[in-house]
Amino acid sequence: MIVNRRTYTAKPGHMEALIEVLKAGGSYLENMPTFRVYQALFGESSRAVLELDFDDLAHYESFWARWGAAPESAQVLERFRQQVEAGETNEIWRLC
User: Fold this and answer.
1) Splitting the chain (96 residues) into consecutive groups of 10 residues, what average pLDDT does each group show?
2) pTM confidence score
3) Which terminus of the chain has a lower count of CB atoms within 10 Å, N or C?
4) Distance of CA 4 to CAs 13, 14, 44, Å?
5) How confident is the model over 44-54, as pLDDT tens digits?
6) In 3D, which of 96, 90, 88 has the Cα closest to residue 8?
7) What is the separation of C-alpha 85 from the centre of its chain, rounded to a whole number of angstroms?
8) How far apart are CA 71 and CA 26, in angstroms?
Protein backbone atom coordinates (compact mmCIF):
# COMPACT_ATOMS: atom_id res chain seq x y z
CA MET A 1 0.00 0.00 0.00
CA ILE A 2 1.10 3.55 -0.63
CA VAL A 3 -0.09 6.76 0.99
CA ASN A 4 -0.31 10.06 -0.85
CA ARG A 5 0.28 12.76 1.79
CA ARG A 6 -0.49 16.34 0.80
CA THR A 7 0.00 19.27 3.17
CA TYR A 8 -1.55 22.69 2.79
CA THR A 9 -1.44 26.02 4.61
CA ALA A 10 -4.81 27.69 4.98
CA LYS A 11 -5.16 31.41 4.43
CA PRO A 12 -5.99 33.25 7.67
CA GLY A 13 -9.60 32.56 8.62
CA HIS A 14 -10.04 29.88 5.93
CA MET A 15 -9.22 26.66 7.83
CA GLU A 16 -12.80 25.44 8.21
CA ALA A 17 -13.55 26.04 4.52
CA LEU A 18 -10.33 24.25 3.55
CA ILE A 19 -11.25 21.24 5.70
CA GLU A 20 -14.70 21.13 4.05
CA VAL A 21 -13.18 21.17 0.55
CA LEU A 22 -10.66 18.45 1.44
CA LYS A 23 -13.36 16.22 2.95
CA ALA A 24 -15.74 16.59 0.02
CA GLY A 25 -13.22 17.02 -2.81
CA GLY A 26 -13.84 13.75 -4.64
CA SER A 27 -17.24 12.74 -3.28
CA TYR A 28 -18.72 12.70 -6.80
CA LEU A 29 -16.33 9.98 -7.97
CA GLU A 30 -16.98 6.26 -7.77
CA ASN A 31 -14.51 4.09 -5.85
CA MET A 32 -12.97 6.87 -3.78
CA PRO A 33 -9.85 5.66 -2.02
CA THR A 34 -9.78 5.67 1.76
CA PHE A 35 -8.69 9.13 2.90
CA ARG A 36 -8.09 11.13 6.06
CA VAL A 37 -8.00 14.87 6.71
CA TYR A 38 -5.93 16.26 9.58
CA GLN A 39 -5.86 19.72 11.12
CA ALA A 40 -2.84 20.76 13.17
CA LEU A 41 -3.58 21.55 16.79
CA PHE A 42 -0.04 22.57 17.75
CA GLY A 43 2.91 23.91 15.80
CA GLU A 44 1.82 25.36 12.49
CA SER A 45 -1.86 25.74 13.35
CA SER A 46 -2.79 26.80 9.84
CA ARG A 47 -1.65 23.43 8.43
CA ALA A 48 -4.02 20.79 7.04
CA VAL A 49 -3.09 17.37 5.68
CA LEU A 50 -4.89 15.12 3.23
CA GLU A 51 -3.84 11.47 3.10
CA LEU A 52 -5.16 9.01 0.53
CA ASP A 53 -4.51 5.25 0.50
CA PHE A 54 -3.74 3.44 -2.76
CA ASP A 55 -2.95 -0.18 -3.58
CA ASP A 56 -0.01 0.83 -5.78
CA LEU A 57 1.23 3.58 -8.10
CA ALA A 58 -1.09 2.44 -10.91
CA HIS A 59 -4.08 2.94 -8.58
CA TYR A 60 -2.72 6.38 -7.60
CA GLU A 61 -2.27 7.42 -11.24
CA SER A 62 -5.69 6.07 -12.25
CA PHE A 63 -7.48 7.93 -9.46
CA TRP A 64 -5.82 11.29 -10.15
CA ALA A 65 -6.47 10.88 -13.89
CA ARG A 66 -10.18 10.25 -13.17
CA TRP A 67 -10.27 13.18 -10.75
CA GLY A 68 -8.69 15.51 -13.30
CA ALA A 69 -11.07 14.39 -16.06
CA ALA A 70 -14.25 14.83 -14.01
CA PRO A 71 -16.10 18.08 -14.85
CA GLU A 72 -16.86 18.70 -11.14
CA SER A 73 -13.16 18.85 -10.30
CA ALA A 74 -12.70 22.32 -11.83
CA GLN A 75 -15.19 23.79 -9.36
CA VAL A 76 -13.59 21.94 -6.44
CA LEU A 77 -10.15 23.18 -7.48
CA GLU A 78 -11.41 26.77 -7.66
CA ARG A 79 -12.90 26.52 -4.14
CA PHE A 80 -9.68 24.92 -2.93
CA ARG A 81 -7.45 27.66 -4.37
CA GLN A 82 -9.48 30.31 -2.54
CA GLN A 83 -8.59 28.68 0.80
CA VAL A 84 -4.85 27.97 0.59
CA GLU A 85 -1.54 29.78 0.56
CA ALA A 86 1.16 28.78 -1.93
CA GLY A 87 3.66 26.11 -0.91
CA GLU A 88 1.90 22.78 -0.59
CA THR A 89 3.72 19.46 -0.40
CA ASN A 90 2.81 16.25 -2.24
CA GLU A 91 4.53 13.09 -0.99
CA ILE A 92 4.08 9.40 -1.68
CA TRP A 93 4.96 6.99 1.13
CA ARG A 94 5.17 3.20 1.09
CA LEU A 95 3.47 1.60 4.10
CA CYS A 96 5.86 -0.94 5.65
Assistant:
1) 97 96 91 95 91 97 96 95 95 96
2) 0.92
3) C
4) 26, 23, 20
5) 889 999 999 99
6) 88
7) 14
8) 11
